[in-house]
């Protein structure tokens, strides 16, 4: 539409393995479906392709993605400029390369390798619920890094290494985010690269007790990477986990606690990473659980250093809400009930009014119904909620918000274990209502926090 600023909307279309259609045919049909589908607004989520014979016969899934990551809730369809990414998922699983233990009986994992986009990584990006616009920033960074390479920007004038460092506490999703980013780039940059590979390296395994073998491993590993990168039509993503091991090994060697060739191995790794700078199709993704232990020589090489911290109350709410939705899908919570998402006016009001547990704590489950605090009643009045059904839905949101607020300090990994713990220890039946599951979830959080306190103090709390 003339004079109207268009908003790029990414549409990812996973094709059937048997699909032989040209990309242009898929793109044209998706555009027709979006602009003529009858919806006035475009949001993140699945696209119904059943009304299109072409798509229904050739497409596994189609979805709009990336709006929420950029802080956008919806886009009017007349502002929408669909960017269609059609791809086929690789059914090949992970392949593991190991280093022989030199007669010691132990093998050391050298790296894991995936062909991208990988079937086992599909949906991982959307499942990661992080604060702010972290995911959008990572996509923008990677896109700009490759653009600068394609435009042949002089690296002598403007420096970028295509090295990312994600650091933060364990369990916050750093490794998963790196894998999901590689998978997402393989989809988004499908028009730029004909193929994509992900290699995951555990830095700790590079500095095993066989330091002479570690040297061989580094050489073999980066030789393999160089072979892959020789094909400029292949995107090669390298994930180095526990990158702080570089510092640990070098420090130990400097203090005389490890063989001197450990220093040579560490320096060899850094030199090999530097050599990848000349490869425009290589992206290095690294993680660290111990920010203060990261080698400064490596930190200086990273273009972006991003903290992936513990989830805030809104992210905790969204994570637990997604878990409840999965339990409803499988019938463990029955009957299914709507739980308001974090975008709802009630949850926004509650978050902005107070996230203090002293305010939220009075909301609890009674005998088959929810007893709401005075604060909850005020919230209902604030958002104009009056119907009985609406009150029940919003009461679920208030109670889940209470659980999320109580779970402060838990990582995303720990949060996703809570629904299982709630069922195992407090539900005691194959299925139950949402009311009772939320009550069990609240007990599970309290128990988890108590047991963590016992671990720290070494005594009952």
UniProtKB/TrEMBL annotation:
<dbReference type="GO" id="GO:0007131">
    <property type="term" value="P:reciprocal meiotic recombination"/>
</dbReference>
<dbReference type="GO" id="GO:0016887">
    <property type="term" value="F:ATP hydrolysis activity"/>
</dbReference>
<dbReference type="InterPro" id="IPR058249">
    <property type="entry name" value="Pch2_C"/>
</dbReference>
<feature type="domain" description="AAA+ ATPase">
    <location>
        <begin position="160"/>
        <end position="312"/>
    </location>
</feature>
<keyword id="KW-0547">Nucleotide-binding</keyword>
<dbReference type="Pfam" id="PF00004">
    <property type="entry name" value="AAA"/>
</dbReference>
<dbReference type="InterPro" id="IPR003960">
    <property type="entry name" value="ATPase_AAA_CS"/>
</dbReference>
<dbReference type="GO" id="GO:0051598">
    <property type="term" value="P:meiotic recombination checkpoint signaling"/>
</dbReference>
<dbReference type="InterPro" id="IPR044539">
    <property type="entry name" value="Pch2-like"/>
</dbReference>
<dbReference type="Pfam" id="PF23563">
    <property type="entry name" value="TRIP13_N"/>
</dbReference>
<keyword id="KW-0378">Hydrolase</keyword>
<keyword id="KW-0067">ATP-binding</keyword>
<dbReference type="InterPro" id="IPR003959">
    <property type="entry name" value="ATPase_AAA_core"/>
</dbReference>
<comment type="similarity">
    <text>Belongs to the AAA ATPase family. PCH2 subfamily.</text>
</comment>
<dbReference type="GO" id="GO:0005634">
    <property type="term" value="C:nucleus"/>
</dbReference>
<dbReference type="InterPro" id="IPR027417">
    <property type="entry name" value="P-loop_NTPase"/>
</dbReference>
<dbReference type="GO" id="GO:0005694">
    <property type="term" value="C:chromosome"/>
</dbReference>
<protein>
    <submittedName>
        <fullName>P-loop containing nucleoside triphosphate hydrolase protein</fullName>
    </submittedName>
</protein>
<dbReference type="InterPro" id="IPR003593">
    <property type="entry name" value="AAA+_ATPase"/>
</dbReference>
<dbReference type="Pfam" id="PF23242">
    <property type="entry name" value="AAA_lid_TRIP13_C"/>
</dbReference>
<dbReference type="GO" id="GO:0005524">
    <property type="term" value="F:ATP binding"/>
</dbReference>
<keyword id="KW-0469">Meiosis</keyword>
């Amino acid at each position: 539409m003339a004079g109207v600023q268009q908003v790029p909307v990414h549409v990812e279309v996973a094709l059937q393995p048997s699909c032989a259609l040209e990309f242009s045919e898929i793109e044209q049909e998706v555009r027709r479906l979006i602009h003529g589908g009858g919806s006035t607004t475009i949001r993140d989520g699945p696209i119904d392709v059943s009304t299109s014979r072409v798509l229904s016969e050739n497409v596994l899934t189609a979805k709009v993605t990336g709006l929420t990551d950029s802080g956008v809730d919806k886009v009017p369809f007349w502002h929408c400029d669909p960017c269609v990414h059609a791809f086929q998922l690789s059914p090949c699983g992970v392949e593991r390369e190991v280093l022989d233990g030199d007669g010691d009986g132990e093998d050391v994992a050298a790296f894991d390798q995936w062909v991208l986009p990988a079937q086992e990584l599909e949906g991982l990006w959307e499942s990661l619920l992080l604060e702010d616009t972290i995911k959008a920033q990572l996509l923008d960074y990677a896109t700009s890094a490759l653009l600068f390479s394609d435009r042949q920007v002089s690296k002598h004038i403007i420096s970028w290494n295509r090295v990312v460092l994600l650091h933060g506490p364990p369990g916050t999703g750093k490794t998963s985010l790196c894998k999901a980013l590689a998978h997402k780039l393989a989809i988004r940059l499908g028009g730029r690269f004909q193929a994509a590979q992900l290699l995951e390296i555990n830095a700790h395994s590079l500095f095993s007790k066989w330091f002479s073998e570690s040297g061989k491993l580094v050489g073999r590993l980066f030789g393999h990477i160089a072979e892959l990168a020789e094909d400029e039509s292949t995107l090669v993503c390298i994930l180095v986990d526990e990158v702080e091991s570089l510092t640990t090994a070098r420090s130990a060697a400097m203090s005389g606690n490890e063989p001197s060739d450990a220093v040579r191995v560490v320096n060899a790794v850094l030199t090999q990473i530097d050599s990848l700078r000349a490869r425009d199709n290589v992206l290095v993704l690294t993680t660290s659980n111990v920010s203060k232990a990261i080698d400064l020589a490596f930190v200086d090489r990273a273009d972006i250093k991003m903290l992936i911290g513990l989830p805030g109350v809104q992210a905790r709410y969204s994570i637990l809400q997604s878990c409840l939705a999965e339990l409803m899908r499988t019938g463990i919570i029955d009957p299914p009930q709507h739980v308001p998402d974090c975008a709802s006016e009630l949850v926004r009001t509650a978050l902005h009014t107070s996230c203090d547990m002293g305010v939220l704590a009075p909301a609890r489950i009674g005998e088959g119904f929810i007893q709401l605090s005075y604060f909850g009643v005020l919230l209902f009045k604030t958002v104009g909620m009056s119907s009985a059904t609406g009150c029940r839905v919003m009461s679920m949101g208030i109670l889940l918000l209470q659980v999320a607020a109580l779970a402060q300090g838990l990582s995303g990994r720990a949060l996703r274990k809570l629904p299982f713990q709630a069922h195992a220890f407090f539900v005691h039946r194959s299925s139950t209502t949402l009311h009772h599951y939320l009550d069990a979830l609240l007990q599970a959080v309290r128990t988890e926090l108590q047991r963590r306190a016992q671990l720290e103090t070494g005594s009952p709390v």
